[in-house]
Amino acid sequence: LEKVGEAEVDFKFKLTTLTVTGDNAAEAGKEFIAVNETVVFTADSNRTFTIILILDDKIGFEENEQFLIELTTFEAGVEAVPNGNPTTVTIVDNDKVLLEFTETNYNVSEGSGNVTVCVRKDLEVA
Q1: Which listed site, 27, 48, 113, 122, has its alpha carbon 20 to 30 Å from 102?
Q2: pTM for the whole thing?
Q3: SS3 sequence, the chain?
């Protein structure tokens, strides 16, 4: 926010999502919708918000995944605090894999040598 004489004026900056590499990297278009937009602070505000859509891939249990958000392309006289740019977003997995036996009891003759049990996997999507 800048004062020009007695008037306060708006200022702009860019907010961009960045993908990370590695085992826990969230993929743009699969886990979230990438953003590359100009954000405006109005003269009467000290906060502004943007929405980044998180996608529920419903693929079952997976590790938490991360992506970065970076503030860039500032107008003259505006800069980001160095230790907070970029910032990390962690997408916490909410899906569970449920395992269950298909039978509640198995009976086997001791002379049969083995027993075959069946386990079913179901996906519970939160």
Answers
A1: 113
A2: 0.66
A3: CEEECCEEECEEEEEEEEECCCCCECCECCCECCCEEEEEECCCCCCCCCCCCECCCCCCCCCCEEEEEEEECCCCCCCCCHHHCCEEEEECCCCEEEEEECCCCCCCCCCCCCCCCCEEEEEECC
